[in-house]
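Proteins fold reproducibly. Next comes a concrete instance:

***
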Amino acid sequence: ALLDRAQALISRVVEQESNPNPRLIHTLATMCEVQEARHLQECASDPSFNNTNTRGSHTIGKLASLIRENDDFYDLVFSKFLSDTSYPLPVRCASARLLLSIHDAFS
C-alpha cells in the first residue's frame, strides 16, 4: 500500500512538471524519513542487524529503488527542479529534502 501510494505521488509530480506541487514532494520525503527512522530503530534494537545490507530489503530501500528506477521522476526532481532557478523555491526545497531523505538508501 505504501509503495502504491508513493508511485501515485511520483506519477502526479511527473504529470505536473510545468507547475509542480511541493506538497507532493514533501509527502514523499516524509514517507522516506519515516521508513528510514524505522529501519534505523530496527537496526539499533537488534545488534545482529547489518544496517547497510538490510536497507535494500526494508521499505526504505524499496522506496529508494522506486524513485531511482523512475527515470522521468528522478531526472525531473533531482536535476531539473534542483538546478533550474525558474522553479519556485518551495519546489526546490522539497526536492532537496527528498534527496536528503533517501541519500543513505542510495549508498
